[in-house]
Input
Amino acid sequence: MNTNGNTYTVIYSIVLVVLVAAILAFVAMSLQDKQNENVKIETITKVLNAATQIDESITIDENTNVLEMYSEKISEAFYVDGNGNMAGQMNMGKENVNDIQVPSTADLKKQNDILKKIDGAKDEASKASLMETLRLPVFIFDINGHSVTVIPCYGAGLWGPIWGYIALAEDGKTIDGAIFDHKGETPGLGSKIAEPAFYIDRFKGKSLGSGEPVFAIEKGKHEDNPNCVDAISGATITSKALGKGIDMWARYCRPYLEKAAATAASAVADTAAVTDTIPAAAGTEPINNMEE
Output
């Protein structure tokens, strides 16, 4: 074959492209498991970070075995639909930490797409059907005697997706911790949503509201508004987008959160009633502090 001809050049180019594509595909497939593991560890780290902010004695750094910490502190991990009903369990890694299951950001995006469809549904039948297909992740941790529930949020920022995790007290409203991340927000501006000065200093102690919006991030000073935090200066678009993401996910997690809070309150009341009526030691009158 004439190596100076056009035919040779075309064939050589095709062979080279196919060879390079095959090598890249092989490398990608070889690294897929490692990439998935890294994504899982990153997600677990963020969920733990949000959950453990209630206890300042707990630190998470590059030396922390987050898989073991997660397995130790997680009490329940499951999915709920839009009606607050259980819709599946996650493996918590109690027997083998390598079996831990957590949703990726790709999984959150799928649920976010369903949430947007529900918000845009034109009739109740369509909305009800979509509500049943939701699989919203819920994580419940025991942090040194404190029950902490973590729910995710996801939305569209200025330049790409933004997401995070909100840690709630047993009342299903009070925010005990939060953490956020992004794919491509502006450095020094929108990217500040991933900095502790934002997600710890501004969120802890705030709460999810019972009306609409459930939560917001707005420009200005909102120290007196328990359901709103101050937007990042110079990053109003990213801040508002994050606020909308939190609001939407919290609204659809609310049916579960309200049921769980009611169950917890009932359990506390029952325990108090039993404690008040426990018989005293032999030879003494029973203890009964309940009003007649």
